[in-house]
Amino acid sequence: MRIGEAAEASGVSAKMIRHYEAVGLLPAAARRDSGYRDYGEGDVHALRFIRRARDLGFSLAEIAGLLALWGDRNRASAEVKRVALAHVEALEAKARDLSAMAATLRHLAAHCHGDARPDCPILEELAGGR
Hints:
Oligomer: single chain
Main location: cytoplasm
Number of domains: 2
GO biological process, one term: positive regulation of DNA-templated transcription
Shape: elongated
Helix content: 55-70%
CATH class of the largest domain: Mainly Alpha
Protein name: Cu(I)-responsive transcriptional regulator
Distance between the termini: 61 Å
Keywords: Cytoplasm, DNA-binding, Transcription, Transcription regulation
GO molecular function: copper ion binding; DNA binding; DNA-binding transcription factor activity
Number of strands: 2
C-alpha cells in the first residue's frame, strides 16, 4: 500500500511516517517501480504500535527500545515492565512539577489586583522578584 493508505490504516500522518523512517524508528519502505513507497501489514502494525506508544508519552528512543523488545520473541517481560514503570515514574514526576507550577501561578494570580494599576506580582516573580 502507498503511504497515504498506510497513514489512513495506522492513524499516523504521512509526514510522521517519513519522519519515523528518517530517524530509523521504522525501516525504510520498499519502493515500487514508480518510486512510491510500498508498505505492508507489518509496517501498519508497527506504525500503530508507535502511535499508541507516542499517545502514552514515550520518547522516540524509548519507543525504539520497545519496538526491539516487541520484535524479540526471546524477550523477558520483566524488561518491558521495567521500561513501563520507569516511564510511569517520569510521568508522575512531571505531573507533580506541573501541579507545583499551577499552584504557584494560582497563588500569584490571587495576589494580582487585576486592575488598571501597573503593579503585578506575576510579572515581578517572572522578573526574579525585583
